[in-house]
Design goal:
The complex is a heterodimer of chains A (327) and B (409).
Chain A lengths: L33 E2 L3 H16 L4 H13 L4 H13 L4 H14 L4 H14 L5 H11 L4 H14 L5 H11 L4 H13 L6 H17 L4 H11 L10 H12 L2 H17 L6 H19 L4 H15 L13
Helix pairs in contact in A: 1-2, 2-3, 4-5, 6-7, 8-9, 9-11, 10-11, 11-13, 12-13, 13-14, 14-15
Chain B lengths: L35 E4 L2 E4 L8 H13 E2 L10 H14 L6 H14 L16 H14 L2 H6 L2 H11 L16 H13 L11 H6 L18 H14 L7 H9 L21 H4 L3 H11 L14 H11 L17 H15 E3 L4 E3 L20 H11 L15
Antiparallel strand pairs in B: 1-2, 4-5
Helix pairs in contact in B: 1-2, 2-4, 2-14, 4-7, 7-9, 10-12, 13-14
Classes of the chains: A mainly alpha (327), B mainly alpha (409).
């Protein structure tokens, strides 16, 4: 589909360009990082520079930008010029949408192509294809950061929240480890119902625990559970400790243990009188030790720091923590 | 389960239900013997032998500084980046740049400078914050009066104002996109060249803070998934602005330490994604920043000898998995070398080797002493002496006056 736009340069006879003097790149007498451009690359850009110099606004200029983009889609100067031309020549932006769709399909990890699409959508004030388009790109790479950014922009700008939670659930059904999907879940809920209504929080906590049971070593789910509960407090959610401790048998993981550390740390901080401070501190320190020495050794330095911090903040002198190594 | 020495390579990586079916997701180093690393079928004993291929990297970099194949056409709008990646790699390797070459770089970057201020991806292109960041860093690495003199500070300030947005963010270039990289690029160049005015960064710290999400890391713009590159940019920018303590540092610390891969030893860019050598800098580089931030906050339980990540494991990953035998470094085994990965893998190696500052310094160099790299500054990612020299030089000059008449907005 991209080739539909690149007809000009196939023609060996460039009569259409004879009036324009190509402008070579000014790299200076002793160039550095000198790229061995192909002949076509050099030609196209020599003519592009000429157009830029004369500020030419014409059909052939627009066609040349397509050639230049094909050779280097990251050249933001060319994209900018293309946008200037689209407006000056009052081009049909529906056609431009088809063009940018094809380019993005081919190069979905480029900043400029997505920004260009956003500009065209804004000019048309028409986001009607965007959810389907980003879904298509995400079906090829479910974590494409640019696609998610574009999708979030469209949803927020044009208030297209309806159906997004369902879309997220489909993605999580396909891959429960898709952290981008978990992020999108948080994005939708925090900007619609928020997590304040108790029925929302309850639904989310239970949903997440179900996903944990399906895939116990999925860090995303554990991070999400913590992420949604921490603002109001892990220890203020009734029955949470029991539910998580209950998972220790079948679903133990460094993430579960880390969650318990967070729980106990928060309990110490809030100290609602429900807890025996010493006992809670010892549980937390014990877990930090277990993580540092056995279950999450790659983060040994971190877990030791957490233990030292808890010790320093909460140790009344009565506890005897099993810290075995010096700082 | 392991005991004292973490057997990073002792276990296969499969965990639970494998729902992501691609080959890439199954990448991990596997071995049945904790002392033997197996890559592509051939055994290597890693504890005894993991040399940094200095000479090969040097030749690769030396050549690239002059000539690049047409494979680099895709970076034709990023040539100051190529200068920075290569010069920084050379300075980490403590390889000198001949004066003539240095002068050529200065003259080239001068040609990349836009008449309206800032630097572009190549001669004749429009100014953009990313090549601006790279050009200023490259010139500061060179550190000569000629290099410093290339920068038109007055126009640079005009350019920064021209990309500043009312909400405190910056677009990457006029008519371009917003994300947290731009704040870092702007803060970096403005602080090094001493052009920060009272209004330049108005609102910027609040915008950056709004990028910290439920995961504890930062996304590219508010609402997005936490990502190593953007988290580094946002955090380093806040450090420059003196506002890093406004972040939820504990949440950020938990997030970034969780990004180190238990088997590979390297870092992933986002939760549940693959390891990549470049995150050795973007992610591991956050730990020195956080260490300093927590210390500023009054934290006295911080380690006196190490950053809060597994330094040896990161060095092992880089030295054993990320070197191309012909020179250059890379993302992970099976990928091609490039100058971006060479720069950031070496930068990460330096971060892992050096703890502290010039007053309190603890080195941990895996392998031979020859593997030691120069230290790098965790905010700017150029050598600390170069940062000091640049700041010293530019602080002798007055902050340019920015008047409405030369404002683009």
């Amino acid at each position: 589909q991209i080739d539909d736009f690149n007809l000009m340069w196939d023609s060996p006879d460039r009569k259409e360009w004879a009036d324009l003097e190509p402008v070579p790149q000014d790299d200076g007498p002793n160039p550095v990082v000198k790229i061995a451009y192909s002949e076509r690359f050099r030609d196209v850009y020599d003519y592009f520079r000429a157009l830029l110099k004369h500020d030419e606004k014409s059909e052939r200029a627009l066609a040349l930008t397509a050639e230049a983009i094909e050779l280097n889609a990251a050249n933001y100067t060319v994209w900018h010029y293309r946008r200037v031309l689209l407006q000056a020549l009052e081009k049909d932006l529906r056609v431009e949408m088809k063009y940018i769709t094809a380019i993005i399909e081919d190069q979905p990890k480029n900043y400029q192509v997505w920004h260009h699409r956003r500009m065209v959508v804004e000019w048309l004030s028409d986001p009607s294809e965007e959810l389907q388009f980003t879904a298509e790109i995400l079906s090829q790479d479910a974590k494409n950061y640019h696609a998610w950014q574009h999708r979030q922009w469209v949803i927020q700008e044009y208030k297209l929240w309806a159906g997004e939670l369902e879309y997220v659930e489909e993605l999580l059904e396909e891959d429960v480890r898709n952290n981008s999907a978990w992020n999108q879940r948080h994005f939708v809920i925090s900007r619609t119902t928020t997590y304040s209504p108790p029925e929302v929080l309850e639904r989310e906590v239970q949903y997440t625990i179900r996903q944990i049971k399906k895939a116990p070593h999925n860090e995303s789910a554990w991070n999400y559970l913590k992420g949604i509960l921490q603002p109001t407090g892990l220890s203020s959610y009734a029955g949470l400790l029991e539910q998580v401790e209950g998972l220790q048998g079948s679903c133990c993981s460094p993430y579960l243990l880390g969650f318990l550390v967070d729980y106990y740390e928060e309990a110490l901080e809030t100290n609602g009188g429900k807890y025996n401070l010493t006992e809670t501190l010892n549980k937390a320190l014990g877990l930090c030790d277990l993580l540092a020495q056995d279950q999450d050794t790659i983060r040994r330095e971190y877990w030791r720091y957490v233990a030292r911090t808890l010790q320093s903040q909460y140790d009344s002198g009565e506890t005897s923590p099993p810290l075995t190594e010096q700082q | 389960s392991s005991t004292s020495t973490p057997p990073h390579y002792a276990c296969p990586s499969s965990t639970g239900t494998q729902t992501c079916g691609s080959y890439e997701f199954r990448f991990a180093v596997t071995s049945l013997d904790p002392l033997v690393l197996v890559i592509d079928g051939g055994p290597l004993s890693f504890r005894a032998h993991c040399p940094l291929l200095r000479e090969q990297h040097y030749q690769y970099l030396k050549k690239g500084l002059r000539h690049l194949s047409d494979a680099y056409e895709c970076l034709d709008a990023s040539r100051p980046w190529l200068c920075y990646w290569i010069l920084h790699s050379l300075e980490l390797l403590e390889e000198p740049v001949p004066a003539a070459v240095a002068s050529d770089v200065c003259q080239f970057l001068a040609r990349c400078q836009s008449s309206t201020g800032g630097f572009a991806g190549g001669p004749g292109q429009h100014a953009h914050l990313a090549p601006t960041y790279a050009a200023v860093n490259a010139l500061c690495i060179l550190g000569t009066d000629e290099a410093y003199g290339v920068i038109d500070r007055e126009k640079l300030l005009d350019f920064l104002y021209s990309v500043k947005q009312p909400d405190g963010s910056f677009v990457m270039h006029v008519g371009g996109e917003v994300d947290v990289r731009s704040a870092y690029c702007a803060a970096s160049v403005a602080s090094l060249t001493n052009i920060i005015t009272p209004t330049l960064f108005e609102g910027t710290h609040n915008w950056i803070l709004s990028c910290q999400n439920w995961e504890g890391g930062l996304g590219g713009v508010p609402g997005l998934e936490a990502h190593g590159g953007y988290t580094f940019c946002g955090t380093a920018a806040l450090v420059i602005l003196g506002k890093e303590n406004m972040l939820d540092l504990k949440a950020l610390l938990r997030w970034v330490t969780s990004r180190q891969m238990r088997y590979e030893g390297g870092f992933q860019g986002r939760c549940n994604k693959l390891v990549d050598g470049c995150y050795s800098f973007w992610q591991a580089g956050l730990l020195p920043l956080l260490h300093r931030a927590l210390f500023k906050d009054g934290d006295r339980t911080l380690s006196l000898s190490s950053w809060m990540f597994e330094r040896q494991a990161l060095q092992e990953y880089l030295l054993l998995c990320c070197q191309n035998p012909g020179g250059g470094l890379l993302d992970k085994p099976g990928k091609s070398r490039d100058f971006y990965h060479t720069c950031y893998c070496l930068s990460g190696l330096s971060i892992a080797q050096h703890f502290g500052n010039k007053d309190l310094h603890h080195e941990l160099v895996l392998g031979k002493e020859e593997n030691r790299l120069a230290p790098t500054h965790p905010v700017y990612n150029i050598c600390p002496e170069k940062v000091a020299r640049a700041i010293q030089h530019f602080h002798q000059l007055p902050v340019p006056a920015h008047t409405r008449s030369n404002s683009k907005t």
